[in-house]
Amino acid sequence: MFTILQEILEYQFLQNALWASVLVSVAAGIVGSYITSRRMVFLSGGITHASFGGIGIAYYFGINPVMGALVFAILSAFGIEALANRKTVREDSAIGILWAFGMAIGIIFVFLTPGYAPNLMNFLFGSILTVTQSDLLMLLALDVILIALFWLFFNPILFISFDPEFAQTQKVPVKVVQYILTALMAAAIVLSIRVVGIILLISLFSIPPATANFFTKTFKGMILWSIAISLIGTFVGLLASYRVNIPSGAAIIVVFVVMFALAKLVSYTTMRVRIRTENNKLHQA
Amino acid sequence: MNKILEVNNVSAGYGSEVVLKNVSIEVFENDFIGVIGPNGGGKTTFLKLLLGQLQPMQGAIHHFPLNEGETLFGYLPQTSNIDKKFPITVQDVVLSGLLSPKRFFGSHTKANKHKAAELMQMAGVLHLASKSIGELSGGQLQRTFLCRALIADPRLLVLDEPNTFVDNKFEKELYELLKELNKQMAIIMVSHDVGTITSYVKTIACVNRSLHYHKSNKISQQQLASYDCPLQIITHGKVPHTVLLDHKETLTPNPK
Q1: Domain-by-domain residue ranges, chain B?
Q2: Which residues of chain A are under the pLDDT cut of 50?
Q3: For a FRET experiment, which of A261, B48, B53, B115 has its CA 20 to 30 Å from that of A190?
Q4: CATH number at residue A103
Q5: Minimal Cα distance from B108: which residue of A?
Q6: Which of helix, strand or coil describes residue A231?
Q7: In CATH, what class is B1-70+154-256?
Q8: In chain A, how many domains are there?
Q9: What is the DSSP letter of B42?
Q10: B188-199: per-residue pLDDT in tens?
Q11: Is A19 on the interface with B (CB under 8 A)?
Q12: % of chain B surpassing 70 pLDDT
């Protein structure tokens, strides 16, 4: 343990990785709770994969891949929303189309780019140890925006997410709020790609809220528990990945799933115990 | 009698499909309108139009001005459309009825929480205030949504099939409560249970592709047929057709 602390103090890249896990946990906790509550896990998966198209194009033209991914993620999110609203295409079909189309565009442009794309694996599978200071600054900015919005507008966000049709009858600008949150979701997804990678990202946003749901039944509780669970999962995963030299994204996801299983076990056991004591009381009475 | 809203020759639908054609109706304060019609006849589309969730393809809906601080709509949706796994408590659902563009910031005031508690007390769900909605029965969920619909003191209460999933006891309580509320607000209620609602509502709107407004709560099978509203009011053995009499609770077949 002591040597790890020493190494963290010594190596900049380890400090960056630690900060990245803290900042990503906050973003994923907030956005993931929103995604899970609104049952948009599949949608977020579609956005994640579609953003690969932006990465490919950015590679080809020599622009910052994160910017390319961000543009693609936001456009595909709005595209899915618009297609689904017009009801000519089913939402899950629209997601499926954009999911594959984005990946296809990405693969074609990466293939067309002369030479070898060395960081490509990092985008697909994540590499928390290569996080740069500019990545961290962007994540910090996102966290500040998310915390401010969810602090100031917690009730409207909760109520609109719960029953948008009712909110509409109260003359609340439902669509505006939903589009802003969708854009933030796309931003959170893209900025987290560096940590776990496109392929595993969906779990960063869905496993912690699902685990949190065993302990809390409120939206606020879900956000706070999700952040805590993400923090533990990313820390432990990061350490494991550094020590054993395995990809950080995969290590983090395995820790998440183990925590989910433990939480399920705990909630199942407490429920059994409660039922048994209640039965005993009934027998005694 | 003040007019609350007016629907003028409105047609509406989805995409290129027209569901409702040339619908007109005026709603005054203290109205109690029962909306009936066959499935797929456009009852839900009609409600969406009224509530502003769907824009008319043709014609216009006019809202008459409200007094300061008043809310136009209180809406009780069909609970089958609600995600019961959503992490939200009963108290928060009730308070969400106060959401409006003016009240967008900050947390709930003490006065609002007090009002929510009073309503939950009335509806018999106060002891469930901190439970999440996933732990409620169908009837308890309906009561919770009724509190949400009422908390902002609406001028027009819109109920979409409030009698589905509720026990008989609550159904009777609900109708008695609506009669009481009708002194302060207009009510529009969609129901598939034609027989029961006609003894509580004041007027009947038959919705089947178009709208026929019947300005009485007594309606015969023949009238329904002439409105192009093929509904069975009530069946009693082999009696060929039945008419609702002017009774509150009991329904007797027409001795014809």
Answers
A1: 1-70+154-256, 87-152
A2: none
A3: A261
A4: 1.10.3470.10
A5: A155
A6: helix
A7: alpha beta
A8: 1
A9: S
A10: 999 877 777 777
A11: no
A12: 88
